[in-house]
Amino acid sequence: MAHVAVIGAGSAVRGYAMAGALVLPAEDDAAVRARWRRLPADVVVVVLTAAAARALGPGTATTHPPFPVVMPA
Prior knowledge:
Rossmann fold, 27% strand
């Protein structure tokens, strides 16, 4: 089964757990990159806060899962 993960500051992502998403709080750039590298294989979409997307940089867009989606700022 495919899953959705959410990466970003805990205060911004915590509520997504109620929708069934895998919530991966990351409070700084290094934590964001570590969470991204360790995503479970069944995660197909990753919702990122704007800060998390900046931490990952422009190279996160891919043609295969996991697909990043950035929250509006």
